[in-house]
Every structure is written in structure tokens, then in C-alpha cells.
Amino acid sequence: MSHQPHEGRVVLTRSVALAASVAAAWGGFLLFLQFGAADGLDVMDILRSALIFASTFWLAWGAAQALAGLTTRPPVQPRVTGPIRARTAILIPVYNEDPVATFARIAAMDASLKSTGFRDLFHFAILSDTRDEGVAQKERHWFLRLLSETGAEGRIFYRRRQSNKGRKAGNIEDFIKRAGGAYDFAIILDADSLMEGATMVEMVRRMEAAPDVGLLQTLPKIIHARSRFGRAMQFSASFYTPIFCRGLAMMQGRTGPFWGHNAIVRVRAFAESCGLPELSGKPPFGGHILSHDYVEAALLARAGWTVRVDDDIEGSFEEGPENIVDHAKRDRRWCQGNLQHSRLLLAPGLKMWSRFVFLQGILAYISPVFWLAFLLASIAAPLFAPPVDYFPVDYWPFPVLPVSQTSKALGLAVGVVGLLFVPKLLILLDAGLRGRTRGFGGFLRSAKSVVSELVFSSITAPIFLMYQTRSVLQVLRGADGGWPAQTRGDGTLSLADAWAASHWIVTAGAAGLGLAQWLSPALVPWLLPVALPMVIAPLLISWSSRPSRTATFTTPTERQSAAVMHLQHLILDRWQGMEAPDEPDLPDPAVTHA
């Protein structure tokens, strides 16, 4: 059996986190209600207080997760120490990707597996959903290069589906149905994933030692970021995310997460439990389930399998977007998928925590809408405020002024900022005390990176708020975002490109400031930290997409590349500029097995 936190401790952690989050939200609600009622309570004061409650709850929940991660440590998981016996398929779904970069990663992982002595037990399956015929031809050609380089014919397979029904989830389901019976486990990767051979072996060891585990999720670290935005995200993922992930593991217990990649599944459990329905109606709320990973984790848990995240496993990597616009495009698909989960909240047989995970995913995208609605309601509040009677006492010659509630507004602002900043500062302190900052260049450089990230995330937050709000509104009005191909490589954006992608944000920010100046001039200073980044959004987007040339945001993998990263660089450098084998009439190879 797997070593999970005691069920009572998991329930206690959940309960404390939920109670603390509700208490913080209720405190914010009361503070703002008292502030708004100083000149007479009206409907807009109640609405704004309710929006503060919802928004503060979500911030407090994130802070509680960080605190849970800071106060717990991963349990020691059982593992097989002798030879492993299981056969494992490594699945790489691709969709209009650069085959040179993708196949170079596969060649590097294969070479890394060779050094473990267990390479013959691992097979790679490249599952292509590519629709572009030119890219598909390159895939077939570079597949031959991959086979000739690795000598792995019979262990590395390629097939391209004629129809990409079900997108990525359907691609994997197709493989499980056709070839899953040949394997005990399947490691699911993305096209930009990279994993050490020793990490794959360790994952198999842990799965063999825990027959109740249906899925084991690793915590992938972002690598190869070059832009200012990309390196800030890379630092955040390496420095903060392990702590948040530890808290998540503590709260989820046996009903853990699946993020769709860099995880290992028990093929039999996945085949028996994870058949996805096609939802009735048209997209965005009907059709194929986009955020399939959350649903597959919930279905495994419903069938009695443990879904676990082991945040102590190293050697698991992925790449991220290099600019805000590409991040927003990817986020649009996630938004649609998460809101689609509203159709599944009452699905029969699901664990209560799985339902709560769906709700969390929905709140992650609805919360920015609450904040924007609060700002708009605050601007419009003077239109609904009752007239103030400064002479309520007959024949009294002096005005009676309302009691100032500014201290309550300041207290609320400090509380909100604290929920955002304090967890990250505590993570910095914890990293310094435990020596984790050494991998990031020492405590002082880590502190500089943390402060820089706090400033950067604060400035760009209004831009993300607008993109996420637009995504939510697009889904609610019935617009299907589809499944666009990921943008890889250099993400530098010119000022013209940035303007084309964000001019509407500029207009919204300027309009908000203008309305505030007209209706509520006292609100303008409070609104500037939000509206000003919106007005200069094109400058921020273009500037942050450019290459970073400072030591800020240094991560351990930048200071010393993992072995598989070094292998990938060597192979990619050799392949770039080479001609692929010239086989224009090569048929699509099917996935077959030795």
C-alpha cells in the first residue's frame, strides 16, 4: 500500500484551511461593509462586500495551501529496490509540433534510459494528431532519423491518427485500446516534456511497490526559458510551486491531482476507469471534455484507485510559454475546460473532494471576474449612494460629518496584499533556513529574485485579469476556443504585435480611469495600480517577451543542467541544419509491438 498522510490528518488540514479561508473572507466582507455603510448603506455596498468575500476566499485558500506545504514534509514512499519487471509505454502526443525538437527530446530520454540498464523495458509511442500535412511529412522523415540514431527499432513507434477525435485524451485512449494490453504502466508526457531515465525507473519502482496506486503525478519544473516573462515563470515554478504542491498533496490525500503529463498511470486502472463521455450539446460546454486530466483523476478515485502526487521526485521537466500572449492563448483552453466541469459537479459516484477540485478549477477563472466586477461596482457606487444629510438635528447649526472608515479600507487592502505576498516571503525564509536557496544562487540572490517576481507579478496581474475575464465571457456567450497548437521556441513580440493583442486592454484601462475621475475622483489613486498597467499593456507585453540578460530568476537547472538536458542539447545541436532522410512516399508507420 502507498504511504499517504493519515486520513484524519488530511481531513484536519482541509478543515483548517477551509475554516481559515472562510474566516478571512468573512473578515473582508465585514470590513468593507462597515466602510461602505459610513455614508449610508445601499445595494452597491452589499454587492461590493459580497464580491470581496468571494475574491478574498480564493486568495486565502491559496495562502492556506502554501502554509500547509510549509508545515509538512513528503512521506517516505515505498519502492521496489531490486530489478524492475514491468513493461512501460512512454506516450508522447504531438499536434503540429516541430518534430526536430520533439524527437531530439525522445532521443535524449532514450539515451538516459540506456544508462539505467532498464531501457528494454521502456517503449516510446509517438501519437500524432497533426493536421498539417507538411508537418506530418516531416514527422515521418524525422522518425526515421530517430530510429537510425537510437537503433531502437521495435522500441520506438510512431502512428498518426486519421481523425483527431477527442483531441489529446482521445489520442491516449486510442493507444490504450489498441496496444495498452502489452504494458503494465504508461508514462504520459507532452511534446515539450523531458524526463531523466532514472526518474522513469523510480516512478515504476514506486508503482510496483504500491498496487493500489492508479496514477502517480510528478511535479515538472520549467526549463529552457529565455525571455523575461519566461524566466520569471520558470523561477516561480522552481521556487514556490514545490511548497504549494506539498500543501496540495497534504490536502488531497488519496484523491490527488493529474495535470495531464509527466505522470505514470497503471494501464489496467486507466483502461477500466477513465473512459470519457462526450457531453451533450455543442461546445464550449458540450462535446469532448477539454480539461480531461482532472476528470480522469476523479474517475480513478471513484473506482477506488489512489491518485498521488510525489513532489519529491526530481528529473521531471517541461517548457512554458515565453510571453504573456502565448500564455493567455493556452489559458483560454484551460478556462473553457474548467468551466465545462460545471456539467460534472453532480456526476454520480464521484468523491466529494473530486467535486471540490472541479469547483476550485472553476473558481480559478471566475475569481478574476469577481475582482473586475468589484472595481466596476466601486466606480459606479456614487450613482447609487443615498444623499447625505449633514444637518439631521433640527435647529442644530453645525454639520454632523460621517465617521471616517478609511482605517477599515486600509486594513482590508493590507490584508489582501498580505494574502498575496506573505506566503511567498515565508517560502523564501523557509528556503533560506533549509539551505534550498543555494541552488538559486544563495539567499541574497534568491531574495532579489523573490522581490523582483513580486513586483513583476503585481504589475502584470491586471493584464492577466483582463485576459481571463475575456476568456470567461467568451465561454459564457458560447464561443468555442478549440484546441490551438502550442507556440514553441522564440516568443519575442514586437510592440506592434503586443498592441494587436492588447489594444482592447488599453482602451478598458483608460475608460476605467476616465469613469473613475468623473464619478468618483477619490477612487483614482486606488485604481491606478490596476489601470496603469492596463494602459501600458503593449509595452509590458513586448518588454517582458524579450530575452533576459540578468542573473535574476536563476534556477538550479540553469546553474547546472540535468544530464538529460545536456543530452538533448547535444542531439538538437547536431540535428539542426541536417537534412532529414528523403523518403517522400513513406507511408504512415503504425504503432506495432515486438
The portion of residues forming beta strands comes to: 5-15%
> What percent of residues adopt helix (DSSP H or I)?
55-70%
- Largest sheet, spatial ordering of strands: 3-2-1-4-8-6-9
Instruction: From the alpha carbons, calculate the radius of gyration and give it in angstroms.
Output: 26 Å
Question: Which geometry do the CA atoms define?
Answer: globular
What's the main sheet like? 7 strands, mixed
How would you classify the helix and strand content by structural class?
alpha/beta
Count of alpha and pi helical runs: 19
**Gap from first CA to last CA:** 32 Å
Low-confidence stretches: 398-404, 583-594
Number of strands: 10
Question: What would you say this structure looks like, in words?
Answer:
It is a single chain. The longest helix is centred in the last third of the chain and has 34 residues, at 443-476. This protein is globular. α3 links the parallel β1 and β2 (122-128). It has 19 helices and 10 strands. Residues 398-404 and 583-594 have low confidence and may be disordered. α3 (99-114) runs parallel beside α4 and α12 (352-380) crosses α14. By secondary structure, it is α/β, with parallel strands linked by helices.
